[in-house]
Write a structure and sequence with these properties.
The structure holds 2 protein chains of 2 kinds.
Chain A: H1 7-19, H2 26-42, H3 58-61, H4 84-87, E1 96-100, E2 103-104, E3 121-124, H5 125-130, H6 134-139, H7 149-157, E4 161-166, E5 176-182, E6 188-189, E7 192-197, E8 202-211, E9 218-227, E10 232-240, E11 246-255, E12 260-267, E13 272-281, E14 287-296, E15 301-310, E16 316-325, E17 330-339, E18 347-356, E19 362-371, E20 377-385, H8 389-396, H9 402-415, H10 424-441
Parallel strand pairs in A: 1-5, 4-7, 5-8, 6-9, 7-9, 8-10, 9-11, 10-12, 11-13, 12-14, 13-15, 14-16, 15-17, 16-18, 17-19, 18-20
Antiparallel strand pairs in A: 1-2, 3-4
Helix pairs in contact in A: 2-7, 8-9, 9-10
Chain B: E1 4-13, E2 16-26, E3 31-35, H1 42-50, E4 55-64, E5 67-68, H2 74-79, E6 82-85, E7 92-96, H3 97-111, H4 119-133, E8 143-144, H5 150-164, E9 168-172, H6 180-191, E10 199-204, H7 208-212, E11 217-222, E12 225-230, H8 232-241, H9 243-246
Parallel strand pairs in B: 3-10, 3-11, 6-9, 9-10
Antiparallel strand pairs in B: 1-2, 1-4, 4-5, 7-8, 11-12
The chains are: A alpha/beta, B alpha/beta.
Chain lengths: 455, 257
């Protein structure tokens, strides 16, 4: 059923990639081999696959997705190709790693982050692997293991990424910032982020994925996170790819007893964006909060698939995803909640709200509840509608122009997804970075074409 | 020249005639009340004046300061000094009241060729205004009208009027949903905004608002047209005898042509 891959070209690419990774530990080598074999065997997903029904990856799979060799030197002006306001997000953090096209860039990163004295490790994954840090192997390739072609390819080809270890009991005040840049060179990157949050630890991580305009790049991202008992972790991803670029991201988190995971996914553009998030509430009393904002503009396509798997009793999950679709774009939301037998007193609530700004834009929303326990609270709701004409008229009746009125309402809708970002300075950096994007959404596209809103 | 001059106005909504040959003149400095039973076309008149969508003017004209009001977008009318106090103020989640007010004021100022108001100056200004209309200043930082009580919403309308300083304010059922104390307070706040260059059109079907906001003229709207006009005593008479008798009463001198 799946689309076969170009076996020879990929085998050749894989052999070349392995040659550059000769000094890696054998467990990783064998994981890569297995992943690559799985990729070749299973091929690309197609729209016949329920998980990919609305997302046709064939424009992507017609290309060869192979890693770019590490550049010897990154030009100091490499960052000029990126939106300065986006780059400013979390830029003052002392825990900051920067990657260009999947390779760690020491020059652009903060000080070397290995061994900060308090046991916190924020390091390039390549360095952690080279030192064969035992905890890396306890997380890497454990949660994401060849579930689909993209995950398998990431494991086979990942050159670098981040390894974050937050020791038990440590409270990290400053956000840990990971910046993944796709430069103007046409290439594919395979960043891998691996996080281990020890018992009773507290931390906040921000993962940025930014693409330079004009380039056909593919970011194939994988993130694995383990939260030990009572750990609290906030995890924000902010992604904005060029309108020509592809971005696929898989994030898997495993939560142990009474841990609290709060994810915020801000997806602000690209030709094809697919975000998969899988939260496993493995032990009792976990809290899982998923906030999401996705923007599909122009002819872009953005697809968010989330799964929250309640496996043990007394866990709570809250999910609120907001989407904006403009132009001739398409936005997809699929929210799956599973409550396993024995996961009694689970409490799961899911909301998906979509704002459609033009006739040509399409939104697909699909809640998907699978409940196998009887003493649970579970609710979901989805709405898709236009800007409220009464609110638009109210603003205009006070002298505010039509375009500005639309902008105000769009901004209000979108920035609700930023509520609760801590510290507040981080929120304002994000709001500043989003301002021009929001301004570009109102106006040209006939948001005010007299059609009745769906409410 | 009257500030507002409506001549033989015919308006349809959803293909149904609502206003049928309405004529009305409103002078600067005047407070006039438009009274009438439910379904007489009062809110349609308010909506047409503010430029709400869904109404079709099939005949007649509306001149505001000598200009064709119907040719202007809602925001242009507002910038030219037309203000509609909504019967049902709209809740706008995620937009702070002060942000909204400042955006509105700056739009109007820009139209007048004035500089945008400084954020700090504006806060001081709007807090004073909120106090004068009896609006809890805490509501300034909250999203527009969200979770406001009926009285708070109406006070918020009057606050907007007070900040935007319109030439022509149309207050659509500003008294509806308010208890008698709130009616008195809101009417008092509007009374304070009376001035010789401003006209205030009060649309209501109760006389009680007019006890505190005494009109210069009263017009009775029925069946889509002004059937009679008079001074404040007309409102009192209507309260006693109802609208049915007003429809047959000859128009007082100085009313609609």
């Amino acid at each position: 059923m799946n689309e076969p891959v170009d076996r020879d070209a990929y085998a050749d690419g894989f052999a070349r990639a392995l040659a550059t990774m000769a000094d890696q530990p054998s467990w990783l080598n064998s994981a890569r081999q297995t992943a690559f074999a799985s990729f070749i065997d299973h091929g690309w997903p197609t729209t016949k696959d329920e998980d990919w029904r609305f997302t046709d990856v064939s424009p992507l799979t017609r290309m060869l997705l192979l890693p770019r060799p590490a550049a010897d030197d990154i030009a100091p002006n490499a960052v000029d190709a990126f939106d300065a306001r986006l780059l400013a997000i979390g830029a003052t953090s002392s825990h900051r790693l920067v990657f260009v096209d999947g390779h760690y860039c020491r020059r652009l990163s903060g000080r070397q982050q290995h061994d900060l004295g308090d046991g916190l490790v924020v390091a390039p994954l390549s360095a952690a692997i080279a030192m064969d840090e035992v905890p890396v192997a306890r997380v890497l390739n454990q949660l994401l293991r060849d579930q689909n072609a993209f995950i398998a390819l990431n494991t086979a080809f990942m050159a670098d990424g981040a390894w974050i270890r937050i020791p038990a009991g440590l409270v990290v005040d400053e956000p840990i910032v990971l910046v993944y840049l796709a430069s103007s060179v046409e290439s594919s990157s395979f960043p891998r982020t691996v996080v281990w949050a020890g018992e009773n630890s507290r931390a906040s991580i921000v993962e940025l994925h930014l693409g330079a305009d004009g380039a056909i790049t593919t970011a194939n991202v994988a993130t694995e996170i383990v939260l030990e008992a009572h750990a609290k972790l906030r995890y924000m991803t902010l992604q904005r790819a060029a309108p020509t670029a592809f971005h696929l991201a898989h994030l898997a988190v495993e939560q142990k007893t009474e841990s609290e995971f709060s994810s915020r996914s801000l997806s602000l553009g690209g030709r094809l964006v697919r975000n998969d998030l899988h939260a496993l509430l493995a032990e009792e009393g976990c809290v899982c909060n998923l906030d999401g904002l996705y923007l599909a503009a122009g002819t872009g396509h953005v697809d968010n698939h989330t799964t929250i798997d309640h496996r043990a009793p007394r866990s709570t999950s809250r999910e609120i995803y907001r989407g904006v679709a403009q132009g001739r774009s398409r936005a997809v939301f699929s929210g799956r909640i599973v409550i396993r037998p024995g996961a009694q007193q689970s409490d799961a609530r899911q909301t998906n709200r979509n704002l459609v700004l033009s006739d040509g834009a399409t939104v697909h929303t699909k809640p998907f509840l699978e409940i196998f326990a009887n003493d649970v609270k579970c609710s979901h709701g989805a709405t898709t509608g236009r800007l409220d004409p009464d609110a638009l008229f109210y603003l205009r009746s006070r002298g505010i122009g039509e375009k500005e009125a639309a902008q105000i309402l769009i901004r209000a809708f979108m920035t609700e997804s930023l509520d609760g970002i801590d510290p507040i300075s981080l929120r304002s950096e994000i709001e500043t970075a989003m301002a021009s994007t929001i301004a570009g959404l109102a106006g040209e596209d006939g948001h005010h074409d007299g059609s009745q809103p769906a409410r | 020249m009257a500030l507002l001059s409506i001549k033989n106005l015919h308006v349809e909504a959803s293909g149904k005639p609502i206003l049928r040959g309405l004529s009305l003149e409103v002078e600067a400095g005047e407070v006039c009340a438009i009274m009438g039973p439910n379904g007489s076309g009062k809110s349609t008149l308010a909506g047409v004046l503010a430029g709400r969508e869904g109404y079709v003017v099939t005949a007649g004209e509306i001149l505001y300061q000598g200009k064709d009001l119907c040719a202007m977008a809602p925001e242009e009318r507002a910038r030219e000094g037309v203000f509609l106090g909504f019967q049902h103020p709209v809740e706008i989640p995620g937009v702070a009241n002060t942000y909204f007010l400042r955006a509105a004021l700056n739009s109007v100022r820009k139209h007048r060729g004035e500089e945008p108001i400084d954020a700090m100056d504006f806060m001081a200004h709007v807090k004073a205004k909120a106090k004068s209309v009896g609006l809890n200043p805490e509501l300034l930082g909250r999203p527009v009208n969200e979770g406001f009580s009926g009285g708070e919403k109406k006070r918020n309308e009057i606050l907007q009027m007070s900040v935007l300083e319109p030439r022509l304010a149309i207050l659509d059922e500003t008294d509806s949903g308010l208890d008698i104390d709130a009616v008195r307070e809101v009417a008092g706040a509007v009374q304070a905004l009376r001035n010789p260059t401003r006209a205030i059109v009060v649309i209501t079907h109760h006389q009680r608002l007019l006890d505190y906001l005494v009109p210069d003229r009263v017009h009775v709207l029925s069946g889509g047209t002004i059937v009679t006009s008079g001074d404040k005593s007309l409102a009192i008479e209507l309260e006693k005898s109802g609208y049915a008798s007003a429809a047959t009463r000859p128009s007082a001198p100085g009313g609609a042509a």
